[in-house]
Amino acid sequence: MLRPVRGGTGSLSFANLLLTFLPLVHSAGDSNGWVMDEAKIGVGVATLLAGATPFNAGNVNETYRGQIQLAGGEIALAIVKDLSIRQLTNELLASTLAHAVGLPTPRAYLTVARPSVISLNQAPQMPDGNRLVFASVDAKTPSLAFRYEQNPSLAPSLLAALTAWEDLGRCYGFDSWTANTDRHPGNLLFGGPKDVWLIDHATHSRGRCGRWEI
Questions:
Q1: DSSP string spanning the chain?
Q2: Percent of the chain residues past pLDDT 90, beyond the cut
Q3: Which residues form the domain of 167?
């Protein structure tokens, strides 16, 4: 069973929210010690493996590409973020809510990162010294912003393809519902109307400067 986390820039209320959010996590006796009903809530549990490499595509927080080991032993390529406890909770909640309403987000994982594997700055720390990071399976789809920057002449066709996406209105509704103020072309992976992914929800619920009351 998870115990309270410490560290990061969040307050105790966010630690409590993180714990409240994970009632389906329990001891499983595997390498992580946890399992989660991933199919039900849209978030799983994983372990970060050695070799993650940093990259910057306009991201605000330290972000890595690396491999994660899932609870069943499978290995997946993932985008890994070093987030404060508040941002981590935001990402987990947004993934769960998007999953519940059927909007496309890359499969998300609450991931254990051992200090021997990676050095982190913001991620909340557990009593055993390991940290918790947000990881999502690499969708291998470029952002709308990247596609435009690579070829600005594509703007009309990109706009037409975006407006043809059947869930565009639901995306607006989702962002309004979750108070996400950070939806921009860099936070929308777009390969076409059938290949769309919503990403980067660390600042939903009134954004970084907002205040939650639990």
A1: -----B-SS--HHHHHHHHHH-TT-EE-SSSSSEE--HHHHSEEEEEEPTT-EEE-SS-SS-EEEEEEEETTS-EEEEEEE---HHHHHHHHHHHHHHHHHT-----EEEEEE-TTT---SSS-B-TTS-EEEEEEE-----BHHHHHHH-GGGHHHHHHHHHT-TTHHHHHHHHHHTT-----GGGEEEEETTEEEE---TTTTT-TT-----
A2: 51
A3: 12-198
